[in-house]
Amino acid sequence: MHVSNFRPVKRVPAAHSRFRRRDGGTKARLVMIGDGPDQAPRHAGSMRELDLCGRVSFLGMRDALPAF
Fold first, then answer.
1. What's the pTM?
2. Computed from CA positions of residues 16, 2, 9, 22, in that sequence, does the dihedral angle turn out positive or negative?
3. Residues of the chain with pLDDT under 70
4. Domain boundaries, the chain
């Protein structure tokens, strides 16, 4: 899970790359929570390139983080 304001300093593409390298071939999923300029639409190409389509969910802004 990654919770942030999705600014460049948060290095969202690096989080995706690390997840891909560390998933160990499992069916793990990465949940991205928050809102900002570096959210999902900007990284659609890297999702395809890293073969993460369908494995990374962008949930947007959420108030009830403990529920996750």
1. 0.74
2. negative
3. 40-44
4. 2-67
